[in-house]
Amino acid sequence: MLKKILVLLCLMAVSQLAHAEEPKPLQLALFEPVQMVPAEESIKGVRLSAFYTVNKDVTGLSIVCLGVNRATGDVSGVEIGLVNWVEGSAYGGQIGIVNHAGERFVGLQYGMVNITEGDLTGIQWGLVNWTEGFMHGMQYGVLNVSKGQSVGLELGLVNYNDSSFQGVQAGFVNYAAEMHGLQVGIVNYTKSLDGLQIGLGNYNGNKDPMEFMVLANWSF
Predict the structure, then answer these.
(1) What is the DSSP letter of 206?
(2) How much is the pLDDT for 147?
(3) Which residues pair with 80 in a beta bridge?
(4) Stretches in the chain below the pLDDT threshold 70
(5) Lower CB density within 10 Å: C or N end of the chain?
(6) Which tens digit of pLDDT belongs to each residue from 10-29?
(7) How far apart are CA 107 and CA 142, in angstroms?
């Protein structure tokens, strides 16, 4: 009898643990820890908050009225808030003043400051757009920075790539460590050019055929 009771208790404990780990369909919060679902659990459905909410993984719609949407894991869906902060990867859309993805972002980041610390596949649209890893897509803003290898389009006042850029940079000042494609602006600068530069001042660091030219420079 004692063995049966112990086995039953163990089964109940395992069942409760598995149930606790299942994503919850609804989160309502004022600010963490004053929230319906604890921070260490995940949400699959809708998350609504007044000021600040934290969960692990979030799938679905997440809205904060005057504060921060935060996920310590991954997010799949749409986040709307003053600050949308994902420590893992994000897939879908982030709309806010500051948008952040820690590992990877796929989709649209729309806000004043958009930051992806890992790879970006999609669009960053804001005043400042910053991607640390590989970028495949478009940056549109005042300052666009891509630190890793990039394929796509940068449109802004200042476009800066610290690695290899393949595509089009269009702005007042365009910089790429290696440029494979087209730079259009007032000042265009690259250490190595495989393509065309159009602007008032065009610098090609590999000096083939010319190191500096006005109006246009090229190297193929």
Answers:
(1) T
(2) 97
(3) 63, 95
(4) 1-20
(5) N
(6) 433 334 444 557 999 999 99
(7) 20
Residue 17's pLDDT is what?
41
Asked if 30 and 49 count as a contact pair (C-beta separation under 8 A), the reply is yes
Residues in the chain: 220
CA–CA gap between residue 145 and residue 162 (Å, rounded)? 8
* Strand ranges (E), the chain: 24-31, 34-35, 43-55, 58-64, 68-71, 75-80, 83-86, 89-101, 104-116, 119-125, 128-131, 135-146, 150-170, 173-184, 187-204, 212-219
What secondary structure letter does DSSP report for 82? S
Three-state DSSP state, 48: strand
What φ, ψ does residue 210 adopt, rounded to 5°? -130, 140
Tell me the backbone φ, ψ of residue 91, rounded to 5 degrees: -130, 120
Two tokens, residue 218: 């090229």
Contact 81, 100 (CB under 8 A): no
- Least Cα distance to 185 among 211, 216, 209 occurs for 216
